[in-house]
Amino acid sequence: MKKILITGGAGFIGSHVVRRFVTKYPQYEIYNLDLLTYAGNLENIADIEQNSNYHFIKGDIADEPFIFDLFTTHRFDSVIHLAAESHVDRSIENPLAFVKTNVTGTINLLNAFRHLWQDNWQNKRFYHISTDEVYGTLGVEGLFTETTPYDPNSPYSASKAASDHFVRAYGETYKLPYVLTNCSNNYGPNHFPEKLIPLFINNILNNKPLPVYGDGKYTRDWLFVKDHAAAIDLVFHKAPDFETYNIGGFNEWQNIDLVKLLCDIMDEKLGRQQGESRGLITYVKDRPGHDLRYAIDASKINKELGWKPSVTFEEGLNETVDWFLQNREWLSNVTSGEYLGYYEKQYMHK
Ligand code: NAD
């Protein structure tokens, strides 16, 4: 019997993690804490909201008295912390919002957890989910390992790096039993369409330009979100305390090649002429401080815990496109309202 607080469970990755834990572990009580910002959407987990071991709580991790009350009331023995402001472009516009949620919010959770259990850490676990962006950028060669020095370049990655440091500092200072993972770019169902893959699926559907930053040569490693959720499950249950693992897809793509592949998959599924969607590709002014290349060495989690991705990129991308085509109402709901103003500001003035 475990009582697990999952933060950010109405967001993209969090919803897949919540679903997996609620359905696979009926003996656990799962509490999903989410502020339901623009990125949080209860529709993402509507299929499990009736499960008796699932509980939703709306609230802000940056609200210290609320977080202390919550931990005092529920006495969670584990935390899986995903709640964050997660979009680099938004962090360039408003860095403080990222400090508030990603840094202060994480410290509030650490403090509340420490306050509860500092006299007895046995069978307690604080799992902090982070990104490979904390490592900064790579040149054309090399891979990020768990010992690569932190060198964040965007306000988003700086805030995530700060939160990682605090988690490790609580491990050293208070012996708070943490595990931490840094993962590469995720893609899949429920991805909010401000990020590259869902944005472009939506734009292709609507015959809108596909805004590719700079020369399109930026390189990222991509991982299917359900494989990330499986890795989180494994690390949560099997990793030793105070360990860090990199999680990646062994799957590097230059943005422009990925966009072309996506265009071709969409043309085929929509019955359009091959090459039609590629005509929508438009190069736009680069994002400031844009990191050239991220690539993950995921051999530690592979060797020590036996994890590897279960699908190829083509399989994952096909499943993702099918999901978006079958869930157009979800897409149109999340791309109305606030999204439209953001989209105009971000892409229409370049
Ligand atoms: P997301 O933006 O889709 O979801 C974030 C969720 O957190 C939303 O449901 C939002 O409502 C909630 N939230 C935001 N501020 C909150 C607050 N103050 N209090 C409570 N809830 C709040 O993000 P995501 O892409 O699912 O990322 C989840 C985590 O994984 C983040 O920590 C992110 O840094 C990390 N990560 C993401 C990726 C990726 O490719 N998306 C890769 C590696 C790591």
UniProtKB/TrEMBL annotation:
Superkingdom as given in the UniProt entry: Bacteria
Annotated Gene3D superfamilies: NAD(P)-binding Rossmann-like Domain (3.40.50.720), UDP-galactose 4-epimerase, domain 1 (3.90.25.10)
EC number: 4.2.1.46
Domain NAD(P)-binding: 5-320
GO terms assigned for molecular function: dTDP-glucose 4,6-dehydratase activity
UniProt keywords, alphabetically: Lyase, NAD
Any coiled-coil regions, as ranges: none
Name of the top EC class for this enzyme: lyase
Reaction equation(s) it catalyzes: dTDP-alpha-D-glucose = dTDP-4-dehydro-6-deoxy-alpha-D-glucose + H2O
Reported cofactor(s): NAD(+)
UniProt key word DNA damage: no
UniProt record similarity statement: Belongs to the NAD(P)-dependent epimerase/dehydratase family. dTDP-glucose dehydratase subfamily.
Name of the protein in its database record: dTDP-glucose 4,6-dehydratase
Organism lineage string: Bacteria, Pseudomonadati, Bacteroidota, Flavobacteriia, Flavobacteriales
Gene: rfbB
